[in-house]
Amino acid sequence: MEAPTTKNDHRLCPLWKLQQRHPKSLCLSQWILPTPELLNHAYRLSVKWQKEIFPAVEIDTTQSPYVFKCQLFDLTGVPPERQKIMVKGGLLKDDADWSTIGVKEGQKLMMMGTADEVVKAPEKGPVFMEDLPEEEQVVAVGHSAGLFNLGNTCYMNSTVQCLHSVPELKSALIKYPHSGRSNDLDQPSHLLTCATRDLFNELDKNVKPVSPMQFWLVLRKKYPQFGQLHNGVFMQQDAEECWTQLLYTLSQALRSPNSSENPDTVKELFGVELVSRIHCQESGEESSETESVYSLKCHISQEVNHLHEGLKHGLKSELEKASPALGRSAIYVKESCINGLPRYLTIQFVRFFWKRESNQKAKILRKVDYPLELDVYDLCSDDLRKKLEAPRQILRDEEGKKLGLKKSAPKDNDVKMADAEGSSNSSGESSLATSGEGVPTDKKTHLTGIYDLVAVLTHKGRSADSGHYVGWVKQESGKWIEYDDDNPIPQREEDITKLSGGE
Question: 299, 308, 446, 468: which one is catalytic?
């Protein structure tokens, strides 16, 4: 909900490429100019190598044959250790005595051996990353660009980076028309959807930070609360509210009433179907209801130490409403379970609450652990559990196969889904997170109820009205990037689960 001013510290991970130099042959050669005292020791020999003949190769018999071999290396490119020179008595050795060989002026020698491969100059010289086109730089760096903070907009930047990690959402936005809108969609919603599509595109094309100014302008036009001012400065806002409002707008814009295949893209990707039993112990009244939500709540109390415990608390609540049987208000208990799973599960850690005595928002700093892999099978309805059994068995068989265990007959279309979790880090960060893996859009895809964490949105700070939001996103390569506004920072996976709150 809070964000700092823009940071100007823009650091990119440099990619260093060793500049190659063409290797040059280094040979040891010694040339002896004949002097009067050495004339009786200098000879000119003819050397035949393959189809070539070298008619006047000078040697000095006062030097070792190795020096002669080095001369031949200069002429032929055959290293001395590979040279086989036929002389009287066999092969010429490096330390042989010329006097025992009995060489004569004009004598013919035969040499065998393979020359070193001639190193060719590269067709293209070294290319530095900054000289590559922006699109290629993104591939080389391994992650997309950061977003400039426009003044307390870290809540917006973190939300955008987490949603940008969902490939199916980007694909749906690409298909969204550049002009025109459906009759039931208002103009601000259309403009916000177009701005989201364009911003995602800019993030994919750039390595240098991108300014989200156009997106921010239309976001404030659609939802004026994000444009609130205090002393002439834009106020800090809530990332969860930004997330919810943006998803609602996209759900309206990306809905395809004329398509039987995918009538509601956002609902398919993020929508959680809940079935609830509402009963009053005092009157015995009981009813049921179904609803669709875009996130689950992890309620935090003194009994909650792990995400799974908080989710169970979030699916059970008490509410007070009028009882027809009693003719007055009564307490009802609402118990919910999951009856339909999305491809990407979003979980909000409910860390902010309204403190009546101080009349302000307060933050719960309690540490709540969460895993990299979340199984929500026991939170599902009986009907959904039956549907999950077969895909889960396929998943178990696949994992058993990797371990070399026997497995049952394989089935197609098994998909291990991705998960979205909220957390808080060691500095007291309250956060919302989303997650997901690329999965097929085939409607026959089977969900397992098991999700992999792919994004986390954290809030750092003790107060609900101050602090800083940061997005943590898992890349296609499996590496994690911390998006701190305009500064993407590589992180280790083991550090992601440490963003669990507390002091």
Answer: 468
Residue 220: its H or E element: helix 213-222
- 311 Cα distance to chain centroid: 27
- Residue type at 32? I
Q: Is residue 468 among the annotated active site residues?
A: yes
HEC string of 414-472?
A: ECCEEECCCCECCCCCCCEECCCCCCCCCCCCECCCEEEECEEEEEECCCCCCCEEEEE
φ/ψ of residue 126, rounded to 5: -60, 140
Q: What's the predicted TM-score (pTM) here?
A: 0.67
Is 280 in the active site? no
* Other Cβ atoms closer than 10 A to 222: 20
Is the CB of residue 146 less than 8 Å from the CB of residue 487?
yes
Q: Which is catalytic among the residues 70, 143, 154, 337?
A: 154
Which residues are within 8 A (CB) of 338 and not within 5 positions of it... i.e. 6 or more apart? Answer: 272, 273, 274, 376, 379, 380, 381, 384
> Tens of pLDDT along 212-255?
999 999 999 999 999 998 888 898 898 999 999 999 999 999 98
